[in-house]
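Minutes, structural biology subgroup

Action item carried over from last meeting: produce the structure token record for Zinc metalloproteinase (Macrosiphum euphorbiae). EB confirmed the sequence was re-checked against the source entry. Recorded below for completeness.
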Amino acid sequence: MLVFKFANEVLHTKLVYRQRVTNYTVCPVYVICADHDGRFQAPVDHDNSVQNACTKITLCSKLIQMLTAEKMYEKGFGKKTFKVEKECRIIKSSLTRRTVFNMHPEKLWEYIARELTAGQNSKTQKYLAFLSCTYWDGQNLHGHVALGGGGLALFGTGCLYTWPSKLEEVLPCFMNMAKVDTGTLLDDSCFRGNFGGCFSTTLGSVWHELGHTFDLGHSKYGIMGRGFDNVHLIFTLDNKNIAQEIKPANKGYIICIENYSNTINMKDDMSNNNNTIENETIDEYDSKHIICWSMGCASILSFHKWFNDFKEENNNEHKIDYVAKRNLLTSRNGLRVVQLRREDGLVMHSWEFVKNNNKRTFILPVQLANNGITIIAEDSYGNILKHLL
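Output recorded by EB:
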């Protein structure tokens, strides 16, 4: 029971917690190189121990879990979200720091993925992993990665020093306007140059990449677009510390992922949807500041195995079939989402059948067949088909 008091007013709120019973989980992981002590790069007076790293990772994994539920609720799907394992696992990699520093991010992702899934039941686990050895030397960044897909979302820890260790530190961390000393610390704030900006961008980036492990593509706006930079806007009313696009002349090095779009019409992402959705235009400013799931993303998550308690027998029966010559999708379980995506993962067209569980077939319009290279389909039990056109 929570009690809120203001002047003479008292509000009682009852909280009820029911733990989901599911084998499908997200496991936070702290990866330490073979020749590294596990201490992440941080200011001199900051606790950069392995224990504190795990504390930060566990807390922020739960923040992302909560944010996912709230944004699903805003889209009308209820507070659906994934289950996070209680403890952050510490994994000792066979890789040395020097090897990690010299590896291409994609190759590093592949290697860590193999290490994590060796001997594990990876079919029901997704890993949210962080590399302890990320290092900024004042000019160049080493051991950094931000990639998600399949069963692994992998990140560097260059800005872990800006993350909270306790729940009561979350808001102060978002509002921390202390300037980053780029001579000794990484500034991954999307040109804001302060601790709060680093926390917002990196937490949002983790959320974004974790979304890819749930089979989400890039959207033209929101969390799976560029909206993740401004996660702090969910927690604060301060609109001053907004992510920037133009690189200041006096900055040496800042990470900022390529923008996906300029002016967006939400109608493009929701065309042919069976649900009645108000068409609205998001201008260039709002597209970079709105923090939401697109309808296509929310629909995929709503029926995803990690967001539901489906019976195991539904996993192997009546999968989705695709007949290329006819551009025909069929599913006895009922199709829920069909998407066309570009090579870079951007969703070009999305069809959602959220309220229609009898959608057994879908014919891809011939005129759209060349608008993407991959067709993605999900059925009522979270079975997913990915087919190169």
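Discussion: The chain has nine helices and 19 strands.
Next step: EB to file the record with the rest of the batch.
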